[in-house]
Design goal:
Elements lengths: L44 E7 L2 E8 L2 E7 L6 E7 L3 E9 L2 E8 L2 H4 L19 E6 L10 E3 L6 E3 L12 E3 L2 E8 L2 E7 L6 E10 L9 E3 L3 E3 L6 E6 L6 E9 L4 E4 L4 E2 L6 E9 L2 E8 L4 E2 L3 E6 L4 E6 L7 E13 L4 E6 L6 E9 L6 E10 L6 E11 L8 E10 L11 E7 L4 E9 L2 E6 L4 E6 L5 E8 L6 E11 L5
Parallel strand pairs: 9-13, 15-23
Antiparallel strand pairs: 1-2, 2-3, 3-4, 5-6, 6-7, 7-8, 10-11, 11-12, 12-13, 14-16, 16-17, 17-18, 17-19, 20-21, 21-22, 21-23, 23-24, 25-36, 26-35, 27-32, 27-36, 28-29, 28-35, 29-30, 30-31, 32-33, 33-34
């Protein structure tokens, strides 16, 4: 059993971004290296992309699309909202060499470029069948600072039923533009020959017979890290009905525009706290980010690859995040922990602690392993210690016929820490050729993101803001000893430029 204990201190409310910049005030109550919406909130991620060497993220905020930029995925600056007023789900595509946004309008007035008087009276809510197009004012600006809604809005969808929403990214199929979009309980395929993307026809109302998630995602599978690709594309499915990032893999046939799903949905993040995500493909990378529901922040950028042998999507923090590592909080090498004993990773009384922890666990060839990682915290009353985060890993011995181990991962966080919930449990297979298992935890005051076995399981947990991180421990299971090849922990720096 392996247990890791952690505490966070958060005090006053954070200051909002001023002059396009945010600060990492010592009294910050929200995450310091995750993107936050601060007073405007942070909701669905609608766009992640690179333009002329600058990374962009757009997310729902204040009834519009918040816009942030970074040159390194580490330091972010907030720009004016890309879209304002009654703009919700949608997507951004770099199409024919220029970026374009398709977005849900909550009214025809909110689709038009000119702001109207008393706009607050017409913003509305929900997803009526009104889709708009928006373009950057200056394509030569790497930051794409200013955007304008097309004067020909809203877009027209010939042959479409009365209800549709959530336009996906757009792709080229010969001389036609295609996209998929939510159509009631199914996902429909739409097609256009209009380079301004204002005139569309419905091609297949049951392109996928279940509901796609949020703004819709349909992309070629990322680079294979193992095996030969047995599918060609991935589509986000609203697997639990609430936008959690599960994807169905299948084959897309360009001549017939038919998508054939090949298996049940698989996750990029198994947590109910992670919602509506966006991915981007370019420069040999697939980048994924999502909204941590209820915590006013987005996940860190993650790089996605595909293991065709195990038929799994793998998601790990982008390499650039490691640049935020600062002070070493604790380090251990080649340590065997006897049953019932514990190993202290670090102990600190610092407030507002953020951290990056890597635990490399040895996997003996003929024995199961049970590991427990636990984050401990004190709340407003220091006399009352409380378990802040729990991760339980059970790893079987290799199967003689398949050479695979089964790994069961269970996680939870306060205030509801239930071990028996299906949403908190995930199983995956691990080849016996892998002799160790790496667990990485990135904590940032109100959020802990956990990556297991090179991203085969990813778990995101939101945690209360009125707690203090004090110490971290690694404990062996009560059944047998556990060998830890290496444990390292770092404090993390500020993520605002």
């Amino acid at each position: 059993m392996l247990v890791l204990m952690i505490m966070v201190c958060c005090l006053a409310l954070p200051r909002d971004c001023t002059g396009g910049k945010c600060t990492c005030d010592p009294t910050y109550k929200l995450p310091q290296y995750h993107i936050t919406g601060l007073d405007g909130g942070a909701h669905d991620v609608n766009a992640v992309f690179n333009w002329q060497g600058v990374w962009h993220v757009m997310h729902q905020r204040n009834g519009g699309w918040g816009h942030l930029v970074s040159t390194d995925f580490v330091k972010w600056s907030r720009l004016p909202n890309a879209i304002d007023g009654g703009s919700w789900d949608g997507s951004l595509t770099i199409l024919d060499g220029k970026p374009v946004i398709l977005f849900d309008c909550t009214s025809i007035q909110n689709c038009l470029p000119k702001r109207v008087e008393s706009e607050s009276d017409i913003i509305g809510v929900g997803d009526p069948p009104i889709i708009g197009v928006a373009w950057p004012v200056n394509n030569s600006d790497p930051n794409l600072t200013s955007w304008v809604k097309d004067s020909h809005n809203p877009a027209y969808f010939d042959g479409s039923p009365a209800k549709y929403s959530g336009p996906s990214n757009v792709w080229k199929n010969g001389n036609k533009y295609q996209m998929e979009m939510i159509l009631g309980g199914a996902t429909a395929l739409y097609e256009s020959t209009d380079p301004q993307l204002h005139n569309w026809s419905i091609v297949n109302p049951t392109f996928y017979p279940k509901r796609g998630g949020g703004g819709g995602i349909f992309f070629p599978l990322p680079k294979c890290v193992s095996g030969t690709a047995n599918y060609t594309h991935m589509m986000q499915e609203d697997f639990y009905g609430d936008g959690t990032p599960w994807f169905v893999l299948g084959t897309f046939d360009f001549p017939t525009s038919k998508f054939t799903p090949g298996m049940s949905p698989i996750p990029l993040d198994v947590s109910s706290d992670m919602r509506y995500t966006e991915v981007w493909v370019g420069g040999g990378r697939m980048i994924h980010m999502g909204w941590v529901a209820g915590n006013k922040c987005l996940s860190i950028p993650r790089q996605v690859t595909y293991d065709a042998k195990l038929v799994q999507l793998l998601s790990v923090p982008v390499d650039e995040i490691s640049a935020l590592r600062g002070e070493v909080l604790g380090s251990h090498r080649a340590t065997t922990i006897a049953a019932g004993d514990s190993l202290s990773v670090f102990s600190t009384g610092k407030t507002s602690l953020t951290f990056d922890i890597e635990v490399d666990i040895a996997l003996p060839s003929k024995a199961p392993v049970s590991v427990k990682i636990s984050a401990m915290a004190t709340g407003p009353d220091p006399a009352k210690n409380q378990t802040q985060y729990l991760l339980l890993l059970n790893i079987t011995t290799p199967d003689a016929s398949t050479g695979l181990r089964e790994v069961t991962a269970v996680h939870c966080a306060l205030p509801s820490c239930q071990w028996d919930g299906a949403r908190d449990r995930y199983r995956f297979m691990l080849p016996d050729t892998e002799k160790s298992l790496l667990v990485r935890l990135l904590g940032d005051r109100t959020i802990i993101e956990t990556f297991i076995a090179s991203g085969r399981a990813v778990m995101t947990s939101k945690v209360p803001v009125d707690v203090n991180i004090a110490s971290a421990f690694v404990l062996s299971s009560s059944q047998s000893a556990v060998t830890v090849n290496k444990v390292s922990a770092w404090n993390m720096g500020c993520g605002w430029a």
